[in-house]
Amino acid sequence: MTRPVRVLVVDDHPVFREGFAALLSSIDEVEVVGTASTGVEALEQAARREPDVVVMDVQMPDMDGIEATRRLLQERPETGVVVLTMSEEDGTIFDALRAGARGYLLKGAEPDEVVRAITTVAGGGVAFGAVLASRIADFLAPRPQSATVTPFPTLTAREHEVLDLLAAGLSNGQIATRLFLSQKTVRNHVYAVLQKLQAADRAEAIIRARDAGLGR
Question: What is the predicted pLDDT for the residue at 141?
Answer without folding.
Answer: 62
